[in-house]
Amino acid sequence: MTPDILINQSVAILCDGNNIERSIHEVAKNQSTMINFDTLIPKLLSKRGLNRLIYFREGKSISSKLAERLHEHYYGSVIPCHKSADIPLSIKATQLASKVDTIIIMSGDSDYVELVRHLKSEGVRVEIAAVRETTARILVDEADYFHPITEKDWFVYTSPKSSATKVKKTVSHKK
Predict the structure, then answer these.
(1) How far apart are the C-alpha atoms of 51 and 12, rounded to whole Å?
(2) φ, ψ (nearest 5 deg) of residue 98
(3) Which domains does the chain possess?
(4) Which of 5, 90, 120, 129 reaches 20 to 30 Å from 56, CA-CA?
(5) HEC states along the chain?
(6) Rounded to 5 degrees, what are φ and ψ at 79?
(7) Whether 41 contacts 11, CB under 8 Å
């Protein structure tokens, strides 16, 4: 009988929010599509320990509900970026390199190729999680592992307000 092997790895997940959002919107052909972190995070971790979850987001329209949810469920944080997430995410990844075993970059952007190479040279395992159809091939090739983000990992958000409006319209038509 072979003994069970305990994998004790510390993982940081760094998400380029704008890149992932654009990718799932493009593939789903729906601007209301959102990542389902409750299914995606356990899949990415695969029984490894979560050290950090940081969602980098360009622009001022960052959902406070998303920030609260990431914090409540994963002690995660949302970091607003002045322009794109590339530089802030790269700086954070470099800072975390000596503190974690694995960094998962949620983005398909080829701008991260040099970051992946650098992190690997520092002895960090680097994995990419992204929508395959919108991910740069060179990024997949440079990474230690690729996690495809598929339609099982997202959902279409419908606001409670629009649902209430639809109910009112339906009720008013019945009169």
Answers:
(1) 5
(2) -85, -5
(3) 10-174 (3.40.50.1010)
(4) 120
(5) CCCCCCCCCEEEEEEEHHHHHHHHHHHHCCCCEEECHHHHHHHHHCCCEEEEEEEEEECCCCCHHHHHHHHHHHCCEEEEECCCCHHHHHHHHHHHCCCCCEEEEECCCHHHHHHHHHHHHCCCEEEEEECHHHCCHHHHHHCCEEEECCHHHEEECCCHHHHHHHHHHHHHHHC
(6) -115, 115
(7) no
